[in-house]
Structure prediction request, 118 residues.
Amino acid sequence: METLSIFIGGRWRLGGGEAMRSYFPADGSVNATLNAASLEDLQEAVECAERAWRDPQWRNTLPHQRAKLLHKVADAIESRVDELARMQSRDNGKPLAEARGLVMSAAGTARYFAAACE
Prediction:
């Protein structure tokens, strides 16, 4: 059983909240455990997002540079489509084909916003 972390301020760590489990709906087996985010984690995430939003390094990034990053996100999603679809299917019980379509939709969304930047 895998223990999952939360991502805040550019780093992965255990959440400060209660332990939670993700179950496979088909047989009830445990996919993973994680510590939920605490109120303190949430406050820190909001503060980190505020600092990032105000950071001139990102604010001054040219649209074509942002598009390049979004294309990389889409490429990363597409390179792991089968793995991500299996994970989503185990988490929510969707048929694998439907989960794969949702993963590809996420990649498509990143490409859509990349195109909007361009």
The longest helix spans residues 96-117. The helical segments are 39-54, 56-59, 63-79, 81-92, 96-117. The two ends are 43 Å apart (CA to CA).
